[in-house]
Design a protein that fits this description.
Blueprint: E1 3-5, H1 10-19, E2 24-26, H2 32-38, E3 45-48, E4 58-61, E5 64-68, H3 73-78, H4 80-85, H5 87-92, H6 98-101, H7 106-112, H8 118-123, E6 127-131, E7 138-141, H9 142-147, E8 155-161, E9 168-175, E10 182-191, E11 194-203, E12 210-211, H10 213-219, H11 232-239, H12 247-264
Parallel strand pairs: 1-3, 2-3
Antiparallel strand pairs: 4-5, 5-8, 6-7, 6-8, 9-10, 10-11, 11-12
Bound molecules: flavin-adenine dinucleotide.
Length: 265
C-alpha cells in the first residue's frame, strides 16, 4: 500500500521529509512515471508538494529573482517580468508540449538535471536553495548540483537568479537533430566597450551542462568578437573526452554562438 502525505506548509514538509527520508516527492508528476517504472514495488510513501504556498510564486526585484520550486515552465514563459529580465530562461522554458509545460516544475528540473533548461540557469548564475529539517539552508550553483546529490531529507525550495543588469546580452537556442537535441545558452555582460562577464553552456541528453570556459576566458577583457569560437572544438575534446556529444551538436553549438557573437560585435 502507498501512503500519500500532503503537507500544508514548508515546516510540515521538512518534518515529513525528515521522518520519511525514502518517500518519493511528487511535484509536477512529469518525471514520476519514469521513476516508477524502475522500481520493483510501489513506493511506501509519496509526499505531494502541491499544497505548500511557500513553494509557489515568482518575485522579481532589485536584488534578484526568486522562483518558488513549484513554479511551472508555463508560468515562467508567461510571466511578463521573467520575460523582460531573464528572456533566456523564459525561452528555455517555452519548448515542449503545453500540457507538459503546465506541470513540470523548476524544482523538478533542478532535481532531475534536465538538459532542456539547466544551461539557461547556469549562464544566468542561478542558485538552487535546499532546505532540510536537520541540515542548514544552502544555496548551490547549478553546476555544483550536477555533481552531487541532495542530502537525504532535503528538498529544493526555490531557485534564485541574480538581477539583470544593463549591458547583459543573452541567447538561447534548442536545435533538434537526428542524434538528439542540443541546447545552447549564452550570456555576456558588456560595459565600456569590453566583455566583463561571459557564460556559455551547451547541454545534451548525455551532458546536461558543458561549461565552455576556454571561450569565456578568451572573451573577457576584450571587445565582443567571434574569434574565440575557434577554441570550441578543443574545449569539447577536453570537456567530453569520451565524445558523447555528437559532432552535429558540437558543430551546431559553435555555429549558433559564432553568429550571436558576430551579431553583437
Ligand atoms: C519540455 C520538456 C518536456 C519534458 N517531457 C517529459 C516527458 O514527457 N516525460 C518525462 O518523464 N519527463 C519529461 N521532461 C522531464 C521533466 O522535466 C523532468 O522529469 C522533471 O524532473 C519533472 O519535474 P516535475 O515537476 O514534473 O517533477 P516530478 O515528476 O513530480 O518529480 C520527479 C522527481 O523530481 C524530484 N523533485 C521534484 N521536485 C522536487 C523538489 N522541490 N525538491 C527535491 N526533489 C524534487 C523528486 O525526486 C521527484 O521524485 C520534460 C522536460 C521538459 C523541459
Amino acid at each position: 500500500m502507498t501512503f500519500l502525505h500532503r503537507p500544508k506548509s514548508l515546516k510540515e514538509l521538512l518534518k515529513t521529509r525528515h521522518d520519511l527520508p525514502d518517500a518519493m516527492l511528487l511535484a509536477g508528476g512529469a518525471g514520476i512515471m519514469k521513476i516508477l517504472h524502475k522500481l520493483e514495488e510501489p513506493p511506501h510513501d509519496v509526499i505531494d508538494l502541491g499544497g505548500i504556498p511557500d513553494l509557489t510564486g515568482i518575485q522579481v526585484g532589485r536584488f534578484g529573482t526568486w522562483l518558488g520550486a513549484m513554479t511551472t515552465l508555463h508560468e515562467l514563459t508567461d510571466d511578463v517580468l521573467v520575460r523582460k529580465h531573464h528572456p533566456c530562461l523564459s525561452e528555455a522554458c517555452s519548448h515542449g508540449p503545453p500540457q507538459v509545460r503546465a506541470r513540470v516544475s523548476i524544482g523538478g528540473i533542478a532535481s532531475g538535471r534536465r538538459f532542456e533548461v539547466l544551461p539557461a540557469l547556469m549562464v544566468l548564475g542561478a542558485r538552487i536553495e535546499y532546505r532540510g529539517q536537520e541540515t542548514p539552508q544552502r544555496r548551490d550553483r547549478v553546476q555544483d548540483c550536477l555533481r552531487k546529490d541532495a542530502a537525504k531529507g532535503e528538498v529544493v525550495v526555490a531557485v534564485h537568479l541574480p538581477p539583470h543588469q544593463d549591458g547583459d546580452q543573452t541567447v538561447f537556442r534548442r536545435i533538434q537533430g537526428g542524434s538528439g537535441d542540443v541546447v545552447i545558452a549564452g550570456r555576456l555582460r558588456v560595459a565600456d566597450g569590453e566583455v566583463k562577464e561571459a557564460g556559455l553552456v551547451v547541454g545534451t541528453p548525455t551532458q546536461p551542462g558543458l561549461h565552455i570556459a576556454a571561450v569565456e576566458e578568451a572573451l573577457i577583457g576584450r571587445p565582443v568578437s567571434a574569434r574565440p569560437i575557434s577554441l570550441m572544438e578543443q574545449s569539447f575534446v577536453d570537456l567530453d573526452p569520451e565524445g558523447s556529444v555528437s559532432s552535429y551538436a558540437r558543430a551546431a553549438s559553435s555555429r549558433v554562438l559564432r553568429s550571436w557573437l558576430e551579431h553583437l560585435s
